[in-house]
Design a protein that fits this description.
The protein is of the alpha/beta class. The chain is globular. A hairpin with a 2-residue loop joins β2 and β3. It has one domain: Peptidyl-tRNA hydrolase (Rossmann fold), CATH 3.40.50. It is built from 7 helices and 7 strands. The chain has a 7-stranded mixed sheet with strand order 2-3-4-1-5-7-6, with helices on both faces.
């Protein structure tokens, strides 16, 4: 079984923002594989389903971005999965161009507070990550204002493609392993 968690903030006002690209990815995966996101448990909106014969739990933590680890820890404990081989976390990255993907098997938080909180709660940096580029903040902008803003119209095609590629990247991670996914998408 895999848990695929997309990070974001739960209020409707954050829908479609750069920081909520993880939530958008989970919605895209759920739509692609007809998985109903209809359970509220473990401080998350969740859905159970199957992707290519593999049982999955899709999750959108409802704890707000900076406390994502609370929900992820509950999910990992309840479903008794090994984070280093059965957890995929999808989130935004301002150091990547809009729509670019970067897949890793482990690593530091890299300044991302949601990932920092997950690492603190799990006690490990070893879990799969799919980072989706949202672009660098413009000079003079406040970082929070930038990541809580929406994508420019000209960025939308790249973001739609990134979400489609994220669905495929998660499938490849589960079916063929992290190294294959890294070679294909990085």
């Amino acid at each position: 079984m895999f848990i695929i968690a997309g990070l974001g903030n739960p209020e409707r006002k954050y829908d479609g923002t750069r920081h909520n690209i993880g939530f958008s990815a989970i919605t895209t995966i759920a739509d692609e594989y007809n998985i109903s996101m209809d359970m509220k448990k473990h401080k998350a909106l969740c859905g159970k389903g199957v992707i290519d014969g593999q049982k999955v739990i899709l999750a959108q933590p409802l704890t707000y971005m900076n406390l994502s680890g609370e929900s992820i820890r509950e999910l990992v404990d309840y479903y008794k999965i090994a984070p280093e081989s059965e957890l995929i976390v999808i989130y935004d990255d301002i150091n990547l161009a809009p729509g670019k993907l970067r897949i890793r098997a482990k690593g530091s938080a890299g300044g991302h507070n949601g990932i920092k909180n997950i690492i603190a709660h799990l006690g490990t940096e070893k879990f799969y990550r799919v980072r989706i580029g949202v672009g660098e903040k413009p000079k003079g902008w406040d970082l929070a204002d930038y990541v809580l803003g929406r994508f420019a119209r000209e960025e939308e095609p790249e973001i739609r493609e990134a979400l489609h590629n994220t669905v495929e990247a998660c499938r490849v991670i589960m079916d063929d392993g992290i190294m294959t996914a890294m070679n294909k998408f990085n």
